[in-house]
Design brief:
mainly alpha, 7 helices, Hypothetical Protein Yqey, Chain: A, domain1, Arc Repressor Mutant, subunit A
Amino acid sequence: MASPQQRVEADLKTALKAGEKERLSTLRLLLTDVKNERIRRGEEVDEETFTAVVRRALKQRAEAAESYRKGGRPELADKEEREAAVLEGYLPEQASEDEVRAAVEEIAAAENLSGAQAMGPLMKAALARLGASADGKTVSRIAREVLTARQG
């Protein structure tokens, strides 16, 4: 199985040969981020870290697109959103909200968690179970809903 960096490099070569300039520049930036992370960690980037790097890049694109829209630059916002679409292809398949809710409810019931003070333990267990298939923001929102419902 190819490493995340090797997958990006292969896609970069394909984009170069096809003359896809925007995809090429996005992949170059992603490859730079992956290499910087490898240098920072002092070891190869595993799938989990690669997913974190992609999520960070997606968040940057979303923030930039929002800023451009507020600043009256829709063409730049559109470019950021197209780059985000390229990056989303590198994320693992995401769990649906129903799957996340089922996992969170199961953990809360198994560990008898309720109320705001249980947020930390529930989040830790849920993120460990769901891994990269769910983003922390969604898990956090659903966990808060489940804990509030169990409290009442």
